[in-house]
Amino acid sequence: MAMNPDDLSDLEVLDENTIVQALRTRYNREKYYTYIGDILVAVNPCKPIALFDEKQHEEYTDLVTRTQRPPHLFWSADHAYRALCNTGRNQCILVSGESGAGKTESTKYMIRHLMKISPSDDTQLLDKIVQVRAKNNPRLT
């Protein structure tokens, strides 16, 4: 078993101290995403990072299992999209965290990924979604 796995649920002991220590270690190694079972934990790097380019969109599209690539927001978005397409059932991605944690930016990246993988021709859909969110809650812009 890895000392610092991509999925912390693989650890023998999973308590608050272990989780915090593992997230800190991964953060110091510039690994900002970690799974804990079905949950993706994102730690805000508080700096620009190159994890959201065209290459990443391609690498996280149509993955059979999430273990094929390191943890990433795009896997969560892609997984929800594939579940929607395969089952026809609505899907939901819950983005939660404290103020300044990067929820809005994470959501924008996931929406961009959904725009890349969906057959929609509406190139301004992302802007429309962000505007609706801002109109309903001005703090989110």
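That was protein one. Protein two is written in the same sequence-then-structure order:
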Amino acid sequence: MMNEDTIAAISTAVGEGGIAVIRVSGSEAVRETAKLFRSKSNIEEVPSHTVHYGHIVNPSSGEIIEELLVTVMRGPRSFTAEDVVELSTHGGVVAVKRVLELLLKEGTVRIAEPGEFTKRAFLNGRIDLTQAEAVIDLIRSKSDRAFSVAMKQAEGALSRKVKALRHSLVELLAHIEVNIDYPEHDVTEMTNAYICQRSNEAIDEINLLLKTAAEGKILREGIVTAIVGRPNVGKSSLLNALVQENKAIVTEIAGTTRDVIEEFVTIGGIPLRLLDTAGIRETEDVVEKIGVERSRSALADADLILLMLNVSEPLQEDDRLLMEQLRGRQVVILLNKTDLPQAMDTEEIERLFPSDSIIRLSVLQETGLDQLEQVISRMFFSGQLESADLTYVSNVRHITLLGHAKQSLLDAMNATEIGIPIDIVQIDVRIAWEQLGELLGDSVSESLIDQIFSQFCLGK
């Protein structure tokens, strides 16, 4: 894993800004930086967690490359648990690039791989795998609520619960081992009852975590929400109103939107991945036909569908076809243009869909949007989000491993009930313990570690 190398990367977004930060980590981080850094202080001798002003100088030519601040953090009291140096340069592409190129020039320091700083924090035992995965969730958070959930996980909220579960199973395994080694003191009925009791307690804890999975996954990834309807009913206007920016072109000409436009928006703390689709209708226009097909594909993949209808016109056959296709899906019916005289008979709509999923609104006058927020919250979060101290499970890997551990414990309980020997029952309990350990990263393959950290941005 090349964990002994000294690595460097730009840790801030590329572009213009007040400052840019280059992070260097490894046993040679301080020494290699000291070769280039000119200051009143020798940073090889300064205390840890101190900041120093100076200049980066090209040792070959003596040219001053940059004026900057250097922060020294010695391991293990650093993010990677190694010696870390952070160079805060002027923002902009040129300044930070020149400093990084000079650091890499001698060949002792290499460019970091995506996520390698966080990977080293994991490999060096500073954080476990659930905390490492939470770092990428922090970066990708699309709402305050999603950020709070990721922050709790990064601080170890999920880790503590899983470690407590594993400790409980270790105690159970120890009890079983004693009874296997000293069978003359074992009372089978009492041991089986104890196994069932402790396994059931662990299953209850796992169920509490899995109960948050659906909501946690939504907070992490957002609700894929397709805005669909006939051309010119106000879909693009709704997207613009929700994101509060003119992202989609709006005209009176039917078929203006030719492709799927994607934007993230937060409504009442709920992240929505909005897909504004081309108007779905029969058309001979080749380009519009492609847009309609993409709209149908987005419709199939959506978690939530906002079907928009124009109440200032009678119900059309295309409207009826869409409503028929969407029966049984998570749908909110938006009766738009209520600021105009109503020409649509809504009885047919009310027969097909629950009244509490039908909203009358005027995107032009921005009325009814609050009700939309309430309906979405009720559909996906039983009316409200849970309390802030709840530990959410949002990662598919975590959900899968918790499910497997639960099944192993159920297998152990079933085995005791049908009289399977206790040494065989022990295998199921141990498998559950190992699966929870895999969740934390105690026993995980190198390929999985590489796969997880390859999703990180460079410099994190």
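Confidence is low (pLDDT under 50) at residues 247-259, 383-389. Keep this in mind for the problem set.
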